[in-house]
Every structure is written in structure tokens, then in C-alpha cells.
Input
Amino acid sequence: MRVAHAPGELEARPRTAAIGTFDGVHLGHRAVIRAAVEAGPLPTVVTFHPHPREVLGNRVALLSTLERRLELLADLGVEETLVVEFTLELAGLEPEAFVRGYLEAIGVEQVVAGAGFRFGRRRAGSLETLEQLGVRALVAPQVEGVSSTLIRRLLADGDVRGAAALLGRPAEVEGTVVSGDGRGGTLGYPTANLRTDPALLVPGYGIYAGSALGPGPERHRAALSIGVNPHYGGAERRIEPYLLDFDGDLYGQRLVVELWERLRDEAAFASEAELVAQIARDVEATRAATRP
Output
């Protein structure tokens, strides 16, 4: 998938576009994007970064980084994506100015969107506005009961199965492996210490089963701890995946960890031996876990 950051970087060619932030690329987003891919020609996404709500002064716990969002869009068959920097100036554009500057400029002939789609200054633009400006508007099927807000709530509660049902894929934690305290290795279960983007939502504390992608194309099942390591009296949140059957150096690598199932709460144990025994049970539960 080709990615551009300004309209001038894309050739003005007949194309069908889906427009939106698409944070998390959940089932509702996927319905719109798939409709654009099926409609053609040249299925394109026009997306925004940073998140509009954040620019307008409201903190948003993001479901995905921009990098991951673009990967998910590519997986759906999108051929080109225009990433538009969302600024207060952009928010103030009248609908016609947005259409002329960002849609007509790259050759968009039709837009696929939900029936309630709004754009432009004070959300004044609609599907009808697009038609009036010479852009064909196609209404995508609506997916009831799916919203980024609900997914965020489920993940904050650790309900990764519930979140997966709305995402259409497993929930994820993404970050870069940095140095930790090395304690896992001394217990026989060396973990990676993930540093995540501060803007990303991290699911509720607990122990999870899932799988990790990266480095390279292979996936490894992973038991993941999110929390403060109460057994050792920790206070700082740590995100620590243990990749099963992996032997290698992960430092500096980007990992995307799928969360398939929440296994238990984090806990303090009477002894280190009890902790190691519980980790062994967590690893076996991870081997038995199924991808939602």
C-alpha cells in the first residue's frame, strides 16, 4: 500500500475513498473500507493524524498507532492512503474547501461512508454535500453496537474477548523492547519489557495469553503480564511478554502482541517457587489458548 502525507504526493486518478480516523480499524470501520475496496476503482483511504479529538483538546486513549493502522488498512486491500495532518486550521475548513483540496486534488470520484457521515467546519458537510459538489456518495452498511468508545471500555476492564468481537480481530499491545530488570531470565522465563506510545490504550492489569509478531514474519505464542509486579513490590506499570519457544535478542525490536484471553489477576506469592509454578501454569494455559 502506498502512503502519502500530502495530496500532491498522489496522482490525480479516478478513485473511491473512505474517509475517517479509523482508530483501531474495528468492524464498523472495516465495513466502510471493504465497501470502498469492492466499489473501486483504486480504493483509497483518507485518514487523519493526530486524532482529531486530541487536537480539539480532548484526551483520547488510542487503540492503535498510526503505523499499525496503516498495516491493518493494507490488509483490507486498500491500495493508497493519504494521511492528513489534523490541525485546528484543517478543522476550520469549510466542506467545499476540504473536497477541493483533499478529494478532487487526488481524483476522488466517489466516497463510501456511513449514513451519518459528517465533515468540515462544525461538521457541516454530509453525504448530500458531497453529491452537491460532484462527488458520488455511497452508503456503507452499518454495523450496530460497535464503537471505539465501547472497545476502550472493554479493554480497560481486561475483556479482550469482548473487544475482539467488536474489532473483528484480537486486541493488541504494541511497543518497542527496552531493557528491564532482567528478573524473568533468572526465573527461567525471560520476558521482553515493552515501551509503548503514551497515547496508546493499555488493557487492564492482569496476565494474558496471546501471540507476538516480530521480529521477522514468525508468530510466537506469548504470555503477557501487564501491571506493577506486586510480588516484588513494584509501583511502575510494566508490559512484559514472554515469547514461548523463542530464543533471540529482542532489544530495540518492535513487537505487536495479540491478547487472546485474560488468564488471571496479577498477584504476590508466598515464595519465589510459588511464583515460578504459577508462571509455568500460565505458559501451559497460553499453549492451550485459542485465537478469538
